[in-house]
Specification:
By secondary structure, the protein is of the alpha+beta class. It contains six helices and five strands. A hairpin with a 5-residue loop joins strand 3 and strand 4.
Length: about 150
């Protein structure tokens, strides 16, 4: 378990105790799995990963734990492209945006200092204090363009 995962575990345990919720091995295992991953996971991905590791966790526990992790600010929930939600760990100073390929579902993270500065300037101009900024660009990645060309009628 890396330093970020240990800090997240400490904060999650504190959050659970402050809200009179049980600290269970299943909840901690789910937290660890999310913080070990560099991917955007949906609930089914997380459930499958736990199954591969022979960790018995119910679907309901996965959903409840994800909700708790979002509520305590350790995980971000985003609808990236499709109909379901993805979850990703929150890292201090780890703000980024997403490009989502509509053909393949591929998610590309990006960060641009000039863009972020421009957004802060716009917020300041309108006397608006953002708590969170997220940009999502949907379109076709290089792989998505190939898929579209191969499946196009024209």
């Amino acid at each position: 378990m890396n330093k970020l995962s240990k800090r997240a575990e400490k904060l999650f345990i504190q959050y659970l105790r402050e809200n009179n919720l049980k600290v269970t091995q299943e909840r901690l295992a789910l937290l660890e799995e999310i913080f070990e991953s560099e991917e955007h996971l949906d609930a089914d991905d997380l459930l499958a990963r736990m199954k591969v590791k022979n960790r018995k966790v119910s679907r309901a526990t996965v959903y409840r734990t994800l909700d708790l992790l979002v509520q305590c600010g350790l995980v971000r929930k985003s609808r990236l492209g499709g109909e379901h939600f993805f979850y990703e760990k929150m890292e201090p100073g780890g703000g980024h945006h997403h490009m989502v390929c509509t053909a393949t579902g591929k998610i590309i993270e990006f960060w641009d200092a000039e863009l972020d500065e421009m957004l802060r300037r716009i917020c300041h101009e309108y006397k608006f204090r953002p708590s969170f900024i997220s940009i999502q660009i949907q379109g076709l990645s290089q792989e998505g363009l190939k898929v579209e060309q191969e499946t196009s009628f024209f």
